Q: What sequence folds into this?
């Protein structure tokens, strides 16, 4: 544990050093500022880097007006940081020389490494070994580099900084991709926002994008961190970045590319097909208070709200406009994305009737009508009346049209005054750029369309929901079950029962006579007879499930058929399960898929044979609390069943959630050896209780 902590501290120190170096060497320095080896030198000078710049090129005496060294070992004092901008094969040697010289951290811009396959990956490992031998850290290779516009430390070769003027500000952008780091930069700068850090880490062999996020999260001036990931290689560093940001009241957003479907090929587990790799990322991000964006627009859309930083409460929203069409569209949009438009109380509606013309109706969303042209006082009065409603957490203002007669300055000042005095989020939308500029000048987050305003407000509120989530419970101690491979159903059920998951009453049988005896032992009612073999995880596909078996003779015959079928497909130790027939209730499913980086992900969902078609599931990162499990259950489309639906008896959601918690604890304790768990179905009974009637567990 101490070594792990030491490595984390060293990683953070090196990342901070790359952003705040006192001296920078540029290996492969070029006189041409448009070449990779020349552009960082030009940027360092243009953006007034206060430290020393040391070009390194064996065939030049000066580069861009600076003294040039033949070799990094010729520099008297070891630079804090180095940029390596030579071909891939030469980069390995130059990294070794940097390490020998005492350089602490390097940005390797050179390409020709892991992105090219096995040979390139070998060069990466060789380069990393050279650096690790002397304690040097690397961003890259194939990295566009890091830029800090607060101090001019622009160790980056992106052309975007030649086209769009950088400006320091409270935003950081980090990405594994160069393009994915500069696209949000361009959008934010053109919207007028300052961006302090732009970092592209490339192949991420050492100092990852997550490690760089941890470093920028420690900057007290940074309020918003935008991160693009193609793979989540360093979840511990990302969790640390999120925790640092949360403590400061800053926000971390992640756009994750490459949504994987590898889990769909899992042979034994429905859970693997439904969870896959990407759901594990979803639950990890949510648990750590990180909002997951789905595209670049989603990544930057709510920036104004984040920087305005007003508490959204439950995000119950009131909407003010002077267009009936806008009122209708706003209601539709809000319902579509899950933004609640609050129901106004009687005090509010009474106040609005006194303010509005007779033709207006005091609804939410509110149409103030064209009467606002003749009486601009309607706007601030209506805004205050609606915003004073105790169930109004946020306000949306839409200006559908403006021009002569509309007092836009007054409207914008009123909206800004309301936000400041009530400390509630206010968003505005307007199609006309002149209107947007007026609201923006007054500090009101403003959007081109009401759709963008609604989406931004919902995102901001959702992010606050994530940040209010409780800290995860501590990890339980590991257990070593000394099991490998796929278990049959009987062994799977027994193991689950030992860890607190309720299972169906059943008997394991090896002969038809055993099955007849089991029928008697289970009380003589209807039973289920199933084949039991590890090599047949999905028995119904092969006709190995007999339902509603009602006599001893029928149980013996069903067992004979199952055993014969199992022998025909080569099962070494064929068995059958005779279990009581569970009647009533609803079939749910529980499952586990163990992500190699993030650990066990527990699935809760609709069960039965159509589970993969319905795909009504929620996922949780284990371990988790009963409250979190209940919340996951209530996110299911079929959640109305828990209250009773169309006269059907209600089902106890705590029974299903409790089984999920027990499964999550088992999975966490066995996380180093467990591969997957599939419980389908687990039946929730109308009178209370949950019963797992089929299960498959696979170990590594």
A:
């Amino acid at each position: 544990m101490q070594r792990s902590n030491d490595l984390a501290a060293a990683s953070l120190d090196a990342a901070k050093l790359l952003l705040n170096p006192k001296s920078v060497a540029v290996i492969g320095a070029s006189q041409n500022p448009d070449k990779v080896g020349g552009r960082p030198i030009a940027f360092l000078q243009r953006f007034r880097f206060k430290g020393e710049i040391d070009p390194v090129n064996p065939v030049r005496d000066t580069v861009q007006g600076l003294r040039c060294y033949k070799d990094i070992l010729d520099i008297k004092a070891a630079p804090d940081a180095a940029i390596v901008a030579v071909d891939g094969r030469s980069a390995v040697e130059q990294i070794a020389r940097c390490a020998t010289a005492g350089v602490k951290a390097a940005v390797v811009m050179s390409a020709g490494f892991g992105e090219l396959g096995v040979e390139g990956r070998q060069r990466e490992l060789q380069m990393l070994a050279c650096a690790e031998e002397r304690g040097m850290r690397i961003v890259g290779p194939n990295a566009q580099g890091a830029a800090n516009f607060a101090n001019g430390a622009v160790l980056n070769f992106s052309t975007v900084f030649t086209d769009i003027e950088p400006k320091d500000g409270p935003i950081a952008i980090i990405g594994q991709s160069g393009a994915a780091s500069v696209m949000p930069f361009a959008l934010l700068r053109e919207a007028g926002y300052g961006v302090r850090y732009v970092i592209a880490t490339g192949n991420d062999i050492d100092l990852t994008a997550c490690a760089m996020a941890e470093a920028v999260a420690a900057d007290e001036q940074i309020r918003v961190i935008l991160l693009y990931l193609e793979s989540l290689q360093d979840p511990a560093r990302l969790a640390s970045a999120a925790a640092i940001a949360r403590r400061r009241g800053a926000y971390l957003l992640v756009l994750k590319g490459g949504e994987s479907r590898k889990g769909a090929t899992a042979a034994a587990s429905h859970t693997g097909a439904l969870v896959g790799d990407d759901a594990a990322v979803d639950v990890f991000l949510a648990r750590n208070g990180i909002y997951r964006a789905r595209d670049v627009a989603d990544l930057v859309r709510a920036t104004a709200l984040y920087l305005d930083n007003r508490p959204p409460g439950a995000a119950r929203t009131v909407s003010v406009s002077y267009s009936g069409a806008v009122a209708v569209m706003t209601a539709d949009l809000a319902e579509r994305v899950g933004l609640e438009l609050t129901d106004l109380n009687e005090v509010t509606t009474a106040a609005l009737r006194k303010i509005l013309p007779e033709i207006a109706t005091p609804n939410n969303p509110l149409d103030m009508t064209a009467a606002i042209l003749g009486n601009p006082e309607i706007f601030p009065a209506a805004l205050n009346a609606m915003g004073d409603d105790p169930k109004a957490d946020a306000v949306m203002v839409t200006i559908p049209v403006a021009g002569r007669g509309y007092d836009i300055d007054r409207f914008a000042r009123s909206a800004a005054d309301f936000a400041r005095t009530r400390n509630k989020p206010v968003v505005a939308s307007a199609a006309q750029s002149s209107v947007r500029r007026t609201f923006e000048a007054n500090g009101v987050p403003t959007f081109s369309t009401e759709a963008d305003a609604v989406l931004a407000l919902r995102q901001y509120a959702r992010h606050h929901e994530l940040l209010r989530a409780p800290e995860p419970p501590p990890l339980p101690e590991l257990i070593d079950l000394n099991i490998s491979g796929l278990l049959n159903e009987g062994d799977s059920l027994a193991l689950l029962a030992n860890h607190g998951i309720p299972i169906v009453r059943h008997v394991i049988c090896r002969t038809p006579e055993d099955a007849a005896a089991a029928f008697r032992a289970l009380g003589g009612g209807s039973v289920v007879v199933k084949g039991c073999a590890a090599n047949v995880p999905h028995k119904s596909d092969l006709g190995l499930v007999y339902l509603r078996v009602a006599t001893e003779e029928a149980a013996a015959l069903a067992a004979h058929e199952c055993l014969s079928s199992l022998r025909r497909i080569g099962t070494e130790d064929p068995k059958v399960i005779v279990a009581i027939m569970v009647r009533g209730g609803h079939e749910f499913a529980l499952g586990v898929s163990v992500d190699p980086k993030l650990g066990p992900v527990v699935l809760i969902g609709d069960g039965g044979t159509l589970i993969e078609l319905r795909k009504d599931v929620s996922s949780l990162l284990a371990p988790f609390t009963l409250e979190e499990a209940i919340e996951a259950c209530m996110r299911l489309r079929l959640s109305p069943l828990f209250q009773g639906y169309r006269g059907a008896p209600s089902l106890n959601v705590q029974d299903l959630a409790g089984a999920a918690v027990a499964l999550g604890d088992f999975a966490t304790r066995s996380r180093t050896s467990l591969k997957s768990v599939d419980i389908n179905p687990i039946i929730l009974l109308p009178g209370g209780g949950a019963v797992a009637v089929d299960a498959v567990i696979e170990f590594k």
Summary: The first strand starts at residue 23 and ends at 27.
